[in-house]
Give the backbone structure.
Amino acid sequence: MQTIRVEGITRVEGHGRITIQLDDQGAVQDAHLHVLQFRGFEKFCEGRPFYEMPSLTARICGICPISHLLAGAKACDAVMGLRIPEAAEMLRRVVHLAQIVQSHALSFFHLSSPDFLAGWDADPSARNILGLAETHPDLAISGVRLRKWGQQVIELLGGRRIHTPWIVPGGVASPLTVAVRDEILSGIPEALAIAKRTLDFYKHRMEKLVDEVEVFANFPTMFMTIGRKDGNLCLYGSRRRHEGWLRFADADGNIVADNIHPRDYQEYIGESVDSSSYMKAPYYKPLGFPDGIYRVGPAARLNMARQCGTPLADEALNEFRQEYGEISQSSFQNHYARLIEILFALERMEQILLEHDILDSAPPAQTTPTAGTAPVGGDQSAPGPHGERRRELPHAP
């Protein structure tokens, strides 16, 4: 028996290593991914004032703090029983779409493309964004510019690129100005051009990556995402628009559970713990572990979406499905899916910014509870309009 250890895994948020065990013939008998970094956010958030949650949870990740900021702020909205102003919700959506653009650009251009362009066996010193700048300078520059633009949008709206204090319980801290709106809109054409050019490049590159697609398709799983009433791609949940409910599908894309309120996630999602890692393995509770293992992310979202809902992204998704089928089990297709979601994010951002109420000058953060109630667990009152249980708040926070 031989043991191979890969120390210091890079390109992940945190620290990790891989252990591979080979038999006497050199065949893999077992393999483990060890995540060595203990985070503990669940514990050190306990006992803190609820309004600190957006700022605290943002620190979970320096690459995608906007996603955690929004989750924390929306939890605070629910605690206070608030329905935030329309303009504030749309601004939250815009900054989240900018986060999708910059995060997907980082993943595709900086972390992934050096591998499938330079080759898996290339010297690690050249298999990175700097090496890519020498062999594929146009692609490398495009990746830097696209990610930079996404971060600039976050900075324009939120005041800074990482851990912005702009997303707050009740909405956002300041309204959108005409100057900022126009500056963001002026950058969308170039960003779209980069996304379309990169997608065309990658589609041709896929002809050389057939083996990779197959290798990463050898473990069929369930999928989980958040859903919209019309079945289209959903990246942001909103009670106002009846979207954001949890949705599970089997390996063939058949929906097995739908319209699950996010607050009830513990009834459907369990977490398996491995003694060799601090990482938890979520699973669909009705099937147990490991049968209930599910995947999330770009490919899972597109697998479960009827369409994206914007012209360029819909065209790209239809072309992808014609080539690879309605449901893709290959994790390698996350690269393709990220490019489609970048198209969608840019198109949707432009649509929102051109809506007249995005410049609403009303106070962006609402502090009066809607009907004086807040969603809670337990049977403390009659169900609300969407089945949630509610209790009375004594007064506005």
Residues 38 and 208 are 39 Å apart (CA to CA).
